[in-house]
């Protein structure tokens, strides 16, 4: 059986190594060697690699004394490889278990065969891609098989590498693969491509603390490296038409994407213009004759070295691009108006914009901050953002529809922004703006930069969060526990307001008034019934689309009604991310579906008991010192796979963990005994998480922010 040498350069990828190395060890092709080149990694990563080397026979581990770059590490690996074939794998990626067998079986007499790349953002889950049987596609259009400029997921004959002296370009950080793959373009009449040879390409979800190489470099560095590689290969392959067409095509693609984007972000390309002009003069005019006149003129000015005219044409290009987008949809037009008109208007010093849960509710801390200001006659103009306008609100504030033209107008002009969740990335915070981020809960589940992997619909979650949270001027903490976590997990370096949550003022100020009965009457709950509130959270792994999650009710309503229906009613309140409604047909009068009820704090106030899971609602509810049950039917999955917790919930929670409806019923029927059993834990929990709250948090926040 022919031998495959799998070469894996490693640089500080500790959390990805197990899935990467295991995917090679589990190959159905038996004759493999794993050559790991430790490219000057940190101590943690090096220690993990040494442990693998000690226990896995197939691994050959080599340590470089300092970081030399991926090109040097791959070239080093080639020198150590003894296989008939070579396969390159990045240490943060992984492959399906039949990839090598499929490639070896179908390479035939070709010097190289390539497989299918699949983008993923989960570390422990292979994409469900199946084909009935392997088949090879022989691509006559060779250039299409090399458009990603990468050497990964290509099985290459070692004798071909030696015959042509193939290496990676070591004097650049990125685009070094192009030097290695270009000979295949010029020498192979057809390129075999196998769909069943799967390579799973991971997009790093923490580009702030643990970026990939491409995420770590500035756009200017990438441009300089690309031009350096392009120039060298253009000279080397000047007499090879296929290679020239490939290089010209990639230059034009890089120009339209990376160079134009750099100009859009930085205003011009003065620092790299000279190199770009030199490279542009190597591009055949026929290669861009089919492009639109604006791009053609840009390239001509670039070739002529006329920076002033190039910048003017680039600005025209960007204006035309924005105008084109603006006419494509109403929302894009609004964004264009926001940037080109509204942001140029003066800021209104006495205007405050409020938003709660992405415009879905009039609730949470923004509501109570607003109502405190109205009640105490603060002289401001108030604007509330909603998905649907028309609410009857105290103080009669201006209501605007989210993502309407008015939305962009008021966010551009208001001095103050108050929200409990992130505002969209495309909003530009002005220097005069003050952004109060109230957030929406004491964290039980790990947050953002405390999470190793992201199991959600958005692989850019961490980078998006980082850019959005840089706009916050103030962040409210409900307790010291949250203060410490928010600082670290949000990388927050501005002012923390250690005030307690304004949204919990109602729990201290209204629990002994007639308000609870008023709320019950409004909902239609009999005043003689005790109330159980069931408020679970969402599961990261059950995403449907960005910001939308599925939830399957595990609570047996029929059994609860049969056993407890004479004394209790149940309120169902889902997280605002959960997209599906819970069907309570047949349980009317016992179960109430209140997921769309505006303010969950009012539901706390009328409830005699809370059932939750991993939702942070219990931190707030504990302010009432009422019983709490923790319905943790999927504890191991949630704790160990999806999120992880900040506390040992089996030791610290102020109520019992229950796994099924029978255990819930038993706890409710013996609630007095449960209260006695958990009294000491409840007292300690209250002191730690509720100790800052006294009904005056709104007052403290307002006096600090709205001076």
UniProtKB/TrEMBL annotation:
Main localization, broad class: membrane
Bilayer disposition of the protein: Peripheral membrane protein
InterPro entries: Glycerophosphate_synth, Glyco_trans_2-like, Nucleotide-diphossugar_trans, TagF_C, TagF_N, Teichoic_Acid_Biosynth
UniProt entry keywords in alphabetical sequence: Cell membrane, Membrane, Teichoic acid biosynthesis, Transferase
Cellular localisation: Cell membrane
Transmembrane segments: none
GO cellular component: plasma membrane
SUPFAM superfamilies: Nucleotide-diphospho-sugar transferases, UDP-Glycosyltransferase/glycogen phosphorylase
GO biological process: teichoic acid biosynthetic process
Keyword Repeat: no
Domain Glycosyltransferase 2-like: 5-164
GO molecular function: CDP-glycerol glycerophosphotransferase activity
Similarity field: Belongs to the CDP-glycerol glycerophosphotransferase family.
Descriptive protein name: CDP-glycerol glycerophosphotransferase
Source organism of the structure: Terribacillus saccharophilus
Lineage, top ranks: Bacteria, Bacillati, Bacillota, Bacilli, Bacillales
């Amino acid at each position: 059986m022919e031998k495959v040498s799998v070469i894996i350069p490693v640089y500080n990828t500790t959390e990805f190594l197990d899935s990467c190395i295991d995917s090679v060890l589990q190959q159905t092709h038996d004759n493999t060697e794993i050559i790991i080149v430790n490219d000057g990694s940190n101590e943690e990563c090096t220690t993990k690699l040494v442990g693998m080397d000690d226990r896995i026979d197939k691994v050959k581990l080599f340590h470089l004394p300092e970081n030399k770059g991926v090109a040097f590490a791959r070239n080093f690996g080639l020198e150590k490889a003894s296989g008939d074939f070579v396969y390159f794998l990045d240490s943060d990626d992984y492959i399906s278990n039949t990839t090598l067998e499929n490639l070896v079986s179908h390479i035939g007499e070709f010097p190289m065969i390539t497989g299918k790349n699949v983008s993923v953002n989960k570390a422990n889950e292979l994409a469900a891609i199946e084909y009935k049987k392997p088949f090879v596609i022989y691509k006559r259009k060779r250039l299409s098989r090399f458009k990603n400029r990468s050497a990964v997921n290509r099985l290459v004959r070692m004798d071909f590498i030696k015959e042509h002296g193939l290496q990676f370009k070591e004097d650049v950080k990125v685009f070094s693969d192009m030097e290695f793959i270009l000979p295949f373009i010029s020498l192979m009449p057809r390129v075999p491509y196998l769909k069943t040879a799967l390579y799973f390409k991971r997009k790093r979800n923490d580009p702030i603390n643990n970026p990939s190489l491409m995420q770590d470099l500035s756009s200017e560095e990438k441009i300089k490296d690309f031009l350096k590689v392009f120039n060298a290969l253009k000279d080397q392959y000047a007499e090879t038409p296929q290679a020239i067409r490939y290089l010209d095509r990639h230059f034009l693609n890089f120009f339209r994407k990376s160079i134009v984007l750099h100009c859009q972000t930085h205003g011009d390309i003065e620092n790299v213009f000279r190199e770009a002009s030199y490279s542009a003069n190597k591009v055949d005019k026929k290669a861009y004759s089919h492009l639109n006149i604006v791009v053609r003129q840009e390239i001509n000015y670039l070739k002529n070295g006329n920076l002033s005219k190039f910048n003017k044409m680039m600005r025209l290009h960007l204006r035309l691009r924005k105008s084109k987008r603006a006419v494509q949809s109403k929302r894009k037009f609004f964004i264009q108006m926001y940037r080109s008109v509204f942001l140029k208007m003066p800021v209104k010093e006495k205007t405050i914009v409020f938003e709660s849960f992405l415009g879905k509710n009039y609730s949470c801390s923004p509501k109570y901050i607003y109502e405190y200001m109205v009640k105490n006659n603060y002289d401001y103009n108030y604007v509330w953002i909603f998905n649907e306008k028309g609410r009857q609100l105290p103080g009669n504030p201006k209501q605007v529809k989210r993502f309407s033209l008015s939305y962009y107008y008021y966010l551009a002009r208001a001095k103050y922004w108050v929200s409990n969740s992130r505002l969209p990335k495309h909003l530009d915070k002005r220097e005069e703006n003050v952004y109060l981020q109230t957030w929406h809960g004491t964290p039980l589940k790990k947050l953002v930069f405390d999470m190793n992997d992201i199991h959600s619909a958005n692989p850019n979650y961490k980078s998006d969060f980082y850019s959005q949270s840089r706009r916050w001027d103030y962040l409210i903490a409900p307790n010291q526990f949250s203060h410490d976590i928010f600082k670290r997990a949000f990388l927050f370096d501005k002012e923390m307001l250690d005030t307690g949550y304004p949204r919990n003022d109602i729990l201290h100020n209204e629990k002994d008034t007639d308000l609870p009965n008023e709320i019950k009457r409004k909902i239609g709950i009999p005043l003689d019934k005790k109330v159980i509130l069931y408020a679970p959270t969402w599961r990261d792994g059950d995403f449907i689309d960005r910001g939308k999650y599925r939830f399957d009710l595990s609570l047996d309503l029929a059994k609860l009604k049969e056993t407890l229906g004479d004394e209790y009613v149940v309120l169902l309140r889902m997280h605002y991310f959960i997209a599906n409604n819970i069907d309570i047909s047949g349980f009317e009068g016992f179960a109430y579906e209140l997921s769309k009820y505006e303010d969950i704090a009012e539901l706390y106030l009328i409830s005699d008991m809370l059932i939750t899971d991993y939702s942070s609602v219990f931190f707030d509810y504990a302010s009432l010192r009422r019983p709490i049950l923790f319905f943790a039917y999927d504890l191991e999955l949630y704790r160990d796979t999806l999120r992880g917790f900040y506390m040992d919930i089996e030791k610290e929670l102020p109520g019992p963990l229950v796994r099924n409806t029978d255990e819930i019923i038993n706890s409710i029927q013996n609630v007095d005994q449960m209260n006695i059993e958990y009294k000491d834990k409840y007292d300690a929990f209250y002191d730690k998480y509720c100790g800052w709250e006294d009904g005056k948090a709104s007052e403290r926040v307002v006096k600090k922010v709205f001076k």
